[in-house]
Specification:
Two copies of one chain form a homodimer. The first copy, chain A, has about 210 residues and is α/β, with parallel strands linked by helices. Helix content of chain A is about 45%, strand content about 10%.
Chain lengths: ~210, ~210
């Protein structure tokens, strides 16, 4: 028995994005380049409505893309987010770092009285200046990033903040939006939704302009 | 500056699941063991409403869990789904296989006129009998799995079918539900939503009974 479905990758891709653009009225209220990220985010989760809850700074694409072209490393808060990043799209063979996998996070977490995801942020510091940060999982990682920025840590080039969940996710993203005074370009999804697929999709859209 | 957020992992976990159980009325209509998977799925995406669109066979937990305890391999359609599987929860040091990474998928895709995700399904065959299949990405992988089952391929022990997207995702999952005559235990999420985080969450819930 054969099922009736589209088998050609380009046709699947084109039809997906056609549907997304047709069903996501929120795109009309965004700068053109920001829609690049929005459509990929909608594509990643199958939910056009998430576009209504996106938050961003108007310079996120211009500055985030420029940073990647300049060779900025990408720092992810979890392996799933790193796995969603399409390496062939990265413009300068950019390194993708996931310090969460570092064994030192166990001891640091105990020391600072926080989660391992937040502990990993201490290990972001050497590479943080000018990096593109991608948070796809942990609210505590985003909160901790904001805390170290208040403490004077070097500034990343951009923050794609998409932690997901019921405890702290929505709050951490509101905190990111309210931290606009740092002048760090960002994109985020308000509320509980988020996750690695969405975060990686945003990074993939930043990496290469081909919408 | 310090933000006010919960930093203790167990407290985050407990409060998350308390909120989920409080806000997901659809749980009341499910067998108790199926709610194990449903709460983890809701946790993974931050969206209690997805519980209303879940589909399952009543034996999915009993048989899926038994298969894992018996040492069944886990076959994933993409690396992100594999990455979301918590190895320490697997009851029998179960192997997690991701044939999509096999270079042969390029040639097979051309040969069969399908996506690489569907091509990878050909490479599932040697390990398919009694395996636990986890689809977190590609509708074409789920359609292809159903096609080979119609062709007489060995039956997996369970199918966690959570492809995501705008082209074929909803249809492939309806096809899975309609293929109940195969008698293969399954769980799925109707419609466009799905993805690796959800698929891996379902597998993690199957792997270990600790709700």
């Amino acid at each position: 028995m054969q099922y009736d479905y589209i088998r050609e990758p380009q046709a699947i891709y084109d039809e997906s994005f056609r549907q997304i653009r047709a069903e996501t009225p929120a795109l009309a209220g965004m700068p053109e380049d920001v829609t690049d990220l929005a459509v990929r985010i909608v594509h990643a989760c199958g939910e056009p409505k998430v576009a209504e809850d996106l938050g961003w700074s108007d310079d996120i694409v211009r500055k985030g893309r420029a940073a990647l072209v300049d060779g900025a490393p990408v720092i992810v808060d979890c392996r799933m987010a790193g796995d969603g990043i399409i390496a062939s799209r990265l413009p300068a063979d950019n390194t993708v770092l996931c310090p969460l996998t570092d064994e030192r996070t166990y001891a640091i977490a105990k020391e600072i009285g926080n989660t391992r995801s937040a502990a990993a942020v201490e290990l972001w510091k050497p590479d943080l200046e000018g990096a593109v940060v991608v948070i796809g999982n942990a609210p505590t990682a985003l909160f901790r990033l904001l805390e170290i920025l208040h403490e004077g840590a070097p500034k990343p080039a951009a923050i794609l903040g998409f932690p997901v969940g019921f405890v702290g996710a929505a709050e951490s993203k509101e905190a990111l939006i309210e931290a606009a005074h740092f002048g760090i370009p960002y994109m985020t999804l308000r509320g509980r939704r988020g996750g690695s697929a969405i975060a990686a999709a945003a990074l993939n859209a930043l990496a290469k302009n081909n919408q």
